[in-house]
Amino acid sequence: MSGKVNIFTAIIVIIVGLYDISIAINRRHQPNNRKGIKAYAILGGIFTVFGIGLLISLLIQK
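The chain above was modelled as a monomer; its predicted structure follows.
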């Protein structure tokens, strides 16, 4: 990964990913609001994995 990435950016990406996953989990229990469960779960997983990758790459560089 090239370029400068701040540690706060990695943490924010992880938080957004976990928030998307929590939305998917909460919508699973609502029978009338089931649209986008898979989309939120997939995006949450992608953001979480990408954020953890950014965090690990930042810690390796230092």
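The first helix runs from residue 7 to 28.
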